[in-house]
Amino acid sequence: MTGNPVFCAVDTTDLSDACHLARALAPHVGGLKLGLEFWNSHGAPGVAEVMARAPKARLFLDLKLHDIPNTVAGAIRALGNVDFDILTVHAGGGSAMMRAAKAAAPGHAAVVGVTVLTSLDDDDLSAMGVPGGSGAQVARLAALARDSGLDGIVCSPREVADRRADWAAGLFVVPGIRPAGSDIGDQKRVMTPVEARDAGAGILVIGRPITAAPDPAAAAQAIAAVLSARAR
Ligand SMILES: O=C(O)c1cc(=O)[nH]c(=O)n1[C@@H]1O[C@H](COP(=O)(O)O)[C@@H](O)[C@H]1O
User: Fold this and answer.
1) What per-residue confidence (pLDDT) applies to 221?
2) Is residue 79 a part of any domain in this protein?
3) Which residues does the annotation say bind substrate (predicted)?
4) Ligand 1 center to residue 120 CA distance, Å?
5) For the chain, what is the domain count?
6) pLDDT over threshold 80, residue 232
7) Three-state secondary-structure class, residue 165
């Protein structure tokens, strides 16, 4: 994807806040991400209201679907005329589920597989019985997603460079982005916007460093300025 790589995660249950953010951020981001917090509150009508405030922004609908293939395919078809550009499923749902998701999605939309959440570290994976740490698990799930026909993956900035080497055409959607000095919160595998972009991220997903800033538009503008000043 070309243009500004920053997608702001608009994580709120408040429709009016989301609409204000969309309008204020539109000139400074490439897209908006609406996820479960917003979707469970407002559904498709809310998505349409928000995106009407940012008509040029792309929509990343982050539903992180994870179920049997028939259910995931039905859930995607039930999105009807929600005009999303990117949709998430969990790569851990397996190959048949990812194939069914891709087949059910509109042809122009990218379906990407969430690998290892950026809020997890190697100790968390070990506690779940996953061997080899996050790098190895992301590698396994990225290969599965690629071989199952998905358009790309969601992973942390730490894994992007290695995975891009195996999948040049893949779309790498990367949360766990923190401008230098900002609060990490519940994220564990993070890098700065420039580091993530230079590692090969196609989309930089940034939420609270923008939305919790005193002036979200200024925060988004500052991130865009740093990225263009330090262009690859
Ligand atoms: O799929 C995602 O977007 C996602 C995957 C992941 O591994 N980690 C992750 O943080 N996200 C999302 O990216 C956003 C990050 O928000 P901040 O931590 O506020 O920047 C949230 O909306 C998360 O739901």
Assistant:
1) 98
2) yes
3) 11, 33, 62-71, 118, 178, 187, 207-208
4) 12
5) 1
6) no
7) helix
Q: What is the pLDDT of residues 65-94, one digit of tens each?
A: 999 999 999 999 999 999 999 999 999 999
From ligand 1's centre to the CA of 176, what distance in Å? 7
**Domain with 81 in it: what CATH number?**
3.20.20.70
Q: Measure the CA–CA gap between 80 and 75, rounded to whole angstroms.
A: 9
User: Residue 116: inside a domain, yes or no?
Assistant: yes
User: Shortest CA distance to 153 belongs to which of 95, 200, 112?
Assistant: 112
Does any ligand 1 atom lie closer than 6 A to the CB of residue 205?
A: yes
Would the annotation count 56 as a binding residue? no
Q: Which residues contact 38 (CB under 8 A, 6 or more apart)?
A: 10, 11, 12, 13, 18, 46, 47, 50
pTM for this model (two decimals): 0.97
Q: Is 232 annotated as a binding residue?
A: no
Residue 1 lies in a domain: no
From 32, 118, 173, 177, the mutation candidate for ligand 1 (largest count of ligand atoms within 8 A of CB) is 118
